[in-house]
Amino acid sequence: MIDITRRAFVRAGSLALVSFGFDPVFLDRAAYAVGGAPAAGSGQTLVCLFQRGAVDGLSMVVPHGEPSYYQDRPRIAISKADLIDLDGHFGFHPALKALAPRWEAGELAVVHAVGSPDTTRSHFDAQDFMESGTPGEKVTRDGWGNRYCQHNRDHAETPFRAVAFGPQLPRALGGTAPSLAIDDLRTFGVRARNPEVSERLTRAFEDLYQGGSTGLLSTSSAEAFEAIRMLKEANPARLDPDNGAEYPKGKLGLSLSQIAQLIKADLGLELAFVDVGGWDTHVNQGSASGQLGARLDELGRSLAAFATDLGSRMKDVVVLTMSEFGRTVRENGTVGTDHGHATAMLVMGGRIRGKQVAGRWPGLDPSSRFEGRDLAVTTDFRALFSEVLQGHLGARRMDLVFPGFDARAARPLGLFG
């Protein structure tokens, strides 16, 4: 017996779209339960990529002009001979070589010494604060991405306005505005051969849609049916990578390729969210190669393929990377790094002013370090996120998106001219 419950479809107040492995008849009927033409979005898309686990920003974007970097990292520092020099003081980890052409073309910028004003070294708390957009506040009920959708309604609504790629909705998109989570575009529709099972599933979904639920759940059900209908109509999975783009194998490459498919299908995608783990490098971090290098290679090749795939459409797309905090300046006894404070974030695409390392660099002199051990935060992550939301998506009322933070008082990073 198959029991379909509302709990299976609701995630943090929004509906997660997942594949159940059942008959396409169900999707055929459910998808057309809601009619109407697809609504256009703003035409601009922001892709947020969360590097969960706290990426070592000092080896991702190396301050090779700082003697302290090499003194405190005798085994894991990236040598000047290996790195990709950016401006004589900073350089990319060699594993990010796929992004070098984007830097040279002025399509990629770095913001260094960025992070949270909260001093926690807990992954859980720091990630929660970065996604809620209210550092230090544990009672915030929604995420900053969802609040952006709540308070910026200039554009026609579409079920695909805010989409996360993964099995559940991330904290950043949780809230009262409709959001979707899609694990894998390829797995929509399925394969149960039992007509009786298919019919029961169809009736269960129709019951969810037609009544017997709260207003919020009914709205979420309608969003899901409309999303499925639009997916069937647009069939984004048919849109293969363009311009010779080759995504690396793995979840990140797959997710970015499917975000590109949704963008090219013109479904109104405005805010996309994807995350990738593996950045908690306490042991055997590696230098030019090794554990961190493997993660950065996947990141660099995935982002480069995404930009190549979208081609001229990248003028309407910005990719913003983020991580909950950085790592210690000094390497530890297990040839790794421990939880730190500030890190580096990347901004790629759109009409940004690239080929710059933005933000105020505090230096690595021990007297300048946070608590004597970490790269100090000189740019609040909310200042960076606000500048991207305003400069790329035309957002207003940052006080509602990031309550308690005055974006107008923040020092401009100069990412948008």
Would you give an account of this structure?
- This protein has 417 residues and is an alpha/beta fold.
- It has one domain: Alkaline Phosphatase, subunit A (3-Layer(aba) Sandwich), CATH 3.40.720.
- It contains twelve helices and 14 strands.
- β5 and β6 (91-92) form a beta hairpin.
- The longest helix is centred in the middle third of the chain and has 20 residues, at 215-234.
- It is globular.
- Mean pLDDT is 85; it is low at 1-41, 189-193 and 204-219.
Span between N and C termini? 60 Å
CATH first level: which class? Alpha Beta
- What is the H/E order? EEHEHEHEEHEHHEEHHHEHEEEEHH
Task: Report strand %.
Answer: 5-15%
User: How many DSSP-defined strands?
Assistant: 14
Radius of gyration: 22 Å
Average pLDDT, to the nearest integer?
A: 85
What class do helices, strands and sheet pairing give? alpha/beta
General form: globular
Any idea what the CATH architecture is? 3-Layer(aba) Sandwich
Helix content: 25-40%
User: In terms of per-residue confidence, which ranges show pLDDT below 50 for 5 or more consecutive residues?
Assistant: 1-41, 189-193, 204-219
Q: Count of helices?
A: 12
Q: Strand count, sense and closure of the main sheet?
A: 11 strands, mixed
Query: How many domains, as an integer?
Result: 1
Query: According to CATH, what is the topology?
Result: Alkaline Phosphatase, subunit A
